[in-house]
Design brief:
Aminopeptidase, 36% strand, binds coenzyme A, 182 residues, eight-stranded mixed β-sheet, alpha+beta
Length: 182
């Protein structure tokens, strides 16, 4: 998919218009703000270290390269021209290349108005387009909102890695969720 490709639009529960599209180079500074905001708030994601602009340039370059070659799914949620959320699906390799690993996050202030649910559905459509058959993701057991959203769109919990993550000095179980999409 080409950078910036328009996918579709919808109205969020709070009335805001949301555009789903592919990422583009000009998202760079919004993306940098986005990841560092998630780190600052202690969001329940794997990343714990803030990112500098040089690292973000490398990350966006790699993202756009893989996107252009249809080697991954990357969908941006855009409100008023601003990057406010991202979902990506990265295929595993070799004998597991039909399995995609999903990651999603939305900027604080744009959550709980239905955007995440729509992004999950779009990620699945794009994953089917790429020929993926199984979607998988890890979620912290404490992240009840995310688990609810994933369950709502058809993921089931297979089990967990007890104490698979640490946050603020406390262990958290990491839950494995899966959905067959083929
Ligand atoms: C998780 C995330 C992607 C979900 O997206 P979102 O746009 O907030 O989700 P939606 O608005 O589509 O749906 C939220 C749902 O969770 C429900 N919910 C909210 N808090 C909840 C809680 N504590 N327990 C259970 N359900 C909860 C809402 O009622 C809503 O359910 P409904 O659609 O059935 O009414 C988003 O909140 C986010 O980015 N969070 C921070 C980063 C993160 O946790 N990423 C996931 C890492 S695995």
């Amino acid at each position: 998919m080409k950078e910036g490709t328009y996918i579709r639009s919808f109205t969020a529960k709070d009335g805001r218009e949301v555009v789903l599209r592919a990422p583009k180079w000009s998202d760079l500074d919004d993306m940098l703000f986005f990841i560092n905001s998630l780190v600052d708030e202690g969001a329940e994601i794997t990343a714990i270290d803030k990112v500098n602009r040089d690292d973000e340039i490398d990350w966006v370059a790699s993202l756009l390269s893989r996107l252009e070659r249809d080697k991954m799914v990357s969908v941006v949620a855009d409100v008023d021209g601003r990057f406010i959320g991202h979902v990506e699906v990265n295929p595993k390799s070799g004998r597991s290349s039909h399995v995609g690993v999903l990651g999603i996050a939305i900027l604080d202030g744009f959550r709980e108005v239905g955007i995440g649910t729509e992004m999950m559905k779009e990620a699945e459509s794009q994953a089917v387009r790429l020929g993926l058959e199984i979607m998988t993701l890890d979620v912290y057991a404490t992240n009840e909102r995310a688990r609810h959203v994933y369950g709502k769109v058809g993921y089931r919990e297979l089990g967990c890695l007890p104490k698979g993550a640490v946050k603020n000095g406390e262990y958290i179980d990491v839950v494995l969720m899966v959905k067959e999409i083929a």
